[in-house]
Amino acid sequence: MKTTYNIGISDWKIGVAGDVLVTYALGSCVGICMYDKIHKIGGLSHIMLPDSNSIADISGLNRMKFADTAIPDMYQKLVQQGASNMTCKIAGGALMFATSSDKFNIGERNVVAVRAALSKLRVPIIASDTGLNFGRTVFFYPENGVVEVKSTTQGTKQL
Amino acid sequence: MLKRYEDLNEIQLDVLKEIGNIGSGNASTALSSMIGKEILIKMPEVKTLAFQEAIESNGAPDDIVGAILVNLKGDISGMILMLTEKNFADVILSAFFGESDVDLLTLNDNQKSALSEIGNIMSSAYINAIATLSNLSIALEPPMFTADMLGAVMSVPITLFGEVGDKLLCINKTIQIDDHEYKSNMLLIPTVESLSVLFSRLGVS
Question: Domains (ranges, CATH) in chain B?
């Protein structure tokens, strides 16, 4: 049965061949598409912040919100469902408003944290479309691992 | 001490609604005198919404919006994010440049400046009302403009202020100009720390 899964901010979901995983309008957030091409299973995570360690009060922490918690959690879930030898494609991490203020540059910090979390799990990033100043919508097809990135000004790009 | 937006009580939300009412009333008067049209605003909505709901309360995540962001500093920190749909941008731009039928994604520099300036003046009027009421000092940074997908624009306040909780406080208002209702929302998004300052100044615990 073909299912389209919509992944909101601070969420991740797993899909198999035939499914479509979609996350709309990534700004400074990053979409992480993790994929096992043999078993045709993959997960899409939409993280919004780099590091859960910045939170003093971790009671009720939403692990799907942070790169350093969401990525290993989704990886574990994929492994439990039989995935191995995974690769990854990432998109997002934009700077939506042109400013030199560091505090706004969460997009860049998110991308750095995503790369670090994936490297820790030894999942290679085989394609990426990150940074710059525009929003992105991501469609991920676990059938063949194709990731389509749509933006308002740059059209559709296939990763 | 307030730690998360979701911990706001009914009385505090009512106070914020009144603040939104006064602030947006001031902002609308400023807009009205600039574009020479009669403007009505609806009673603002004050809601603490989950991130995805906060986006969807303003439209579909991939709707194209013009966005003017004004950063707040001083006793209150946070931001005002003004979202304008195409029709509202046309009303504003026609007051400056004559008949207008723009594509938000291909605005020229003059059009972007005009929209930014409107956002700036309305934000100032909004914030002045709050500052006067609370006797707090609040400074506004220069406005920043972008046009993009609603969800991508709203990811900015969500990431900046969404670290601790899972909800965002939005003080929203809808504008009516000459009988036509516009989905132009001015979102006042104060930091959680600023809310405590504001409440203690107003004597609301």
Answer: 5-202 (3.40.1550.10)
Whether the CA torsion B161, A11, B81, B167 is positive or negative: it is negative
> What does the pLDDT read at residue A57?
63
Asked if A62 lies within 8 A of B144 by C-beta distance, the reply is: no
Residue appearing with tokens 């004050």: B46
A88 catalytic, yes or no? no
Decide if A24 touches B, using CB distance below 8 A. Answer: yes
Q: Per the structure, how many domains does chain A have?
A: 1
CA atoms of B80 and B113, how far apart (whole Å): 17
Q: Give the structural domain span for A81.
A: 4-158
Name the region of A131 (left: φ>0; alpha: ψ -120 to 50; beta: rest): left
Average pLDDT over residues B77-96: 89
Q: What is the ipTM of this complex?
A: 0.89
Which of A14, A21, A26, A29 is catalytic? The answer is A29
In CATH, what number is assigned to the domain containing residue A109?
3.30.1330.200
Could you say which of B52, B105, B153 has the minimum Cβ distance to residue A27?
B153
| Any B CB within 8 A of A6 CB | no
For residues B137-144, average pLDDT = 93
Query: Using a CB-CB distance cutoff of 8 angstroms, which residues of chain A are in contact with residue B66?
Result: none
